[in-house]
């Protein structure tokens, strides 16, 4: 049975095709960026797209198609669907469909807020009940003591809520172009920097496995 640990434990195929894995993860975002940047040109080339709406809604439709294609390709090539991209993909389809159906860009702009809030609340809520949920996801990659898992879960929970808040600030106060650029080129670098910044904590709380005894 597929377990949540497969979200972070590289399969044989992922080790063999790391660039393909990266392309499948960031590909839909690049499609979204291109669709918004060249939305009017795409409508001119393919008039049927005018039924979708303005450039951002055209980009949303392309984003939905690219997301589904990415998930299908991941399942075929790597034999599993990572938890976070799968949850994000479901929210993309729901909020993207609402945006196009109601001709209201608000729904797709709120998608990062909803996804990050869900992850943040889940992690922090788990701590309230004495559960370090991050440990269930990353225990195949790291062996930390209880204090380490609690600290890491707390930090990631707060970070997800930070991403939710900053998305709200950007889409509500800046233009669509600024928001799309931030979504594509801002969120990922921020996440990478945050992840690297957690390495000292991980190293401090890593449980060292006993060295194997040498047979005499």
Structure, explained:
By secondary structure, the chain is an all-alpha fold. The protein is 75% helix and 0% strand. The protein contains ten helices and no strands. The chain has helices spanning 12-16, 18-37, 39-45, 55-78, 83-102, 106-128, 133-138, 146-173, 176-197, 199-205. Helix 5 packs antiparallel against helix 6, helix 6 (106-128) packs antiparallel against helix 8 and helix 8 (146-173) runs antiparallel to helix 10. The longest helix is centred in the C-terminal third of the chain and has 28 residues, at 146-173. It starts with 11 loop residues before the first helix and ends in an 11-residue tail after the last helix.
Mean pLDDT: 80
Helix % is: over 70%
Number of strands: 0
Low-confidence stretches: 1-10
Order of helices and strands: HHHHHHHHHH
Quickly count the helices: 10
Radius of gyration from the CA trace? 20 Å
Q: Which geometry do the CA atoms define?
A: elongated
Distance between the termini: 42 Å
Q: How would you classify the helix and strand content by structural class?
A: mainly alpha
In percent, how much strand structure appears in the residues? under 5%
Major sheet summary line = none
């Amino acid at each position: 049975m597929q377990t949540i640990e497969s979200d972070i434990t590289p399969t044989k195929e992922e080790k063999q095709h790391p660039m393909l894995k990266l392309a499948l993860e960031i590909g839909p975002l690049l499609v979204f960026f291109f669709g918004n940047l060249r939305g009017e040109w795409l409508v001119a080339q393919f008039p049927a797209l005018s039924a979708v709406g303005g450039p951002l809604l055209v980009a949303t439709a392309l984003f939905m198609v690219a997301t589904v294609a990415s998930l299908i390709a991941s399942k075929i090539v790597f034999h599993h669907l990572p938890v976070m991209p799968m949850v994000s993909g479901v929210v993309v389809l729901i909020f993207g469909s609402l945006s196009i159906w109601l001709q209201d860009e608000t729904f797709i702009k709120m998608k990062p807020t909803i996804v990050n809030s869900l992850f943040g609340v889940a992690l922090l809520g788990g701590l309230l009940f004495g559960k370090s949920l991050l440990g269930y996801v990353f225990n195949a990659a790291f062996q930390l003591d209880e204090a380490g898992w609690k600290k890491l879960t707390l930090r990631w929970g707060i970070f997800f809520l930070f991403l939710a808040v900053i998305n709200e600030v950007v889409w509500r106060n800046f233009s669509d172009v600024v928001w799309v650029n931030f979504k594509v080129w801002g969120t990922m670098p921020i996440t990478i920097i945050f992840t690297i910044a957690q390495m000292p904590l991980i190293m401090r709380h890593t449980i060292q496995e006993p060295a194997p005894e040498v047979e005499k």
